[in-house]
Amino acid sequence: MSDPVNTVVVVGGGTAGWLTAGLLAAEHRPSQESGLEIILIESPDVSPIGVGEGTWPTMRTSLQTMGVSETEFIRQCDASFKQGTRFSGWSTGDDEHYYHPFAPPLRFNDFDLARHWQPLRDKVDYADAVTPQGRACERALAPKQITTPEFAGNLNYGYHLDAGKFSKFLERHCVEKLGVTHIVDNVVAVNGADNGDIESLGLRSGETVHGDLFVDCTGFAALLLGKHYEVPHRSVRDYLFNDTALAVQVPRSSPDEPIASTTLSTAQRAGWIWDIALPKRRGIGYVFSGAHTSDEQAEADLRSYLASTADVEFSESCNPRRIDFSAGHREKLWHRNCVAVGLSGGFVEPLEASALVMIEQSANMLSEQLPPNRSTMDIVAKRFNDKFLYHWHRITDFLKLHYVLSRRDDTDYWRDNRSAHSIPGDLTESLELWRYRCPRYQDFSRVDELFPAASYQYVLYGMNFETEGPSDRRHSDTAARATADSLFNENIKLTAQALQALPTNRDLISKVHEFGFQKI
Amino acid sequence: MDNNFALLNNVEHQNIKVITERSARYGDDVHFAMTFPLEFRQIQSCYPIFFRKDANTGQFSPVALFGFQPRENLYLSDTGWDAHYIPLMIRRHPFVIGLQQVQGEGDTKREVVSIDMNSPRVNESEGEALFLPHGGISDYLSSVTEMLETIRLASEMNAPFVDALLELDLIESVTMQIELKDGSKNELLGYYTINEEKLQELDGETLGRLHSHHYLESIFMILASLSCFRTLIDKKNDQLGDA
To answer: Which residue of A has its CA nearest to B159?
Structure first.
């Protein structure tokens, strides 16, 4: 075979770099003689941005694929269980909230329960009618018991984790168990080949690292795809306004404080505040639109949230870290023999924790479709670009949905978010359809959609969007009514069982530290 | 009723007697009890041995199975416990043994025996006396103390045994489907057993290592015990016949 792909060079030692290296190595076995060589170059001077601390349930599969023990992961990454997001103040700004849980509605695959919930909308929240998960989260319960095997759950779950510790954990696993070569040095030169490919990277030490495929995991710097290839950045600022975040880490005031089992997302006058609960600390940040509020006001709003949910003294003394970003993504993610994974490829905002899952998706596709040689690489690159541009498009739509449905009228931020020209055309069309029927599978065309129809339902009905309910004139509706009733009743039963059987998040985490999960 | 453990002493408990009869009335209506390799030989001749996870810690322990659902002990009848061997963890009631810090002596701990004063076995009129009229301990209590000491030593050996099995993937989950003579189908969940396929694949060196810790013997005791599962089903069917 001519021009075989034997060596993959990953540049960047943050979560994106190590996840990509780990998922590639799990499949392509660098430790074996005929395996792929995987080199990760990490700069000693650049510290990872480290605010990607919420995962999706997909992370369980990723960890399993890499052969990681869930017990060790939880112990070493200060991780806890995440079962979705709790949105507060998004609909009206009053004291209201809704859940977007990870568990799909009962029998989601083959039954349109959402339609039958419509007449009940004033009696029970959508999420609470169709899954036990929201109520379990409201009590800060864990998704499983200490007797549940590793990676299995009574309820669907992902994780909250310490991003810095997670990178280090993956690094050790990749190097010690999976045979990834780790170089700590700065890349000072990108050496091109005659055909325009990257041939090698020059390091400060004078060493040159050759590779057949280069993965750009250099964060916002986008050293290879951005700086070297100058692939343009496509902004989505017209739709999603946020461009700044102020982040702090809040120490626990006592070691047995409850650990929330969802990300808390609280709407503010010009954005929203994330609140991510780890066993030893909380990660909190205000992400906002600089065009809609001043830095001083934003900081004051963050401190006021801290004062009401943490420690007053801390809220005054803490020093928030500022992160500027430009919502958008590269016009393509894979160019010649260089592919961007992580922030280098794009970032819109932290809402719905799309950053880590995009890394996992990218690394999985890269691993599964790894071109065997240079001559097939452009085909894979084209497909990769199609797929991930589609994902960026869908992410933009889904995140925008949260803003479009808000009825807040207290600031320009919320009003501007509803102005017609700030709403992607696809989303406007979908919303028109969804007035008459609930979002279902066929609304979304990919088998591996990031946000399934269930997610749209939770947000739409959590924010009081109205869809036409069942009708006596529709035969399918009358026939299905009994099924719907029995499912609603089943959910009541399942909810009671879950509340009775599940320990608190805090209790379970303590037990994982003391005893650990069994593998079976 | 909740447990109410009191450190045993010959002043407070001078007149206490313990009923040793086997009956549901005295709390013997349990469907399993923890067991240890030390008594596997006797257990396997009467009861099937499985592994179960402790609800509180998730850790595996071997258990002897007496029934298919909570509070069902198929060995229990009006005339007592129908088996020639009764597991130590059943016989220990209403006592437990624990370690207590000795005051003023750093890390030194001594064994102490406690009694559950809420146990229906405990009274002042019926059963075996704990203490002699002048305060000395009765033969019954000294045999109890000896048994508790055995339990303490034996239970410490469970964790290394289980760890050795887990390390070799020798424990697997088992779902048992039982069809009774009335046609009802019952499923038993939450039990684990020895993975015989994995056991067959072990090389001589590994087997030698298991043997040197006497684990091999215990493994085969567990496998042999499974024939008692039939006994359990027969007992259950007999009960249905009575009904």
So the answer is: A515
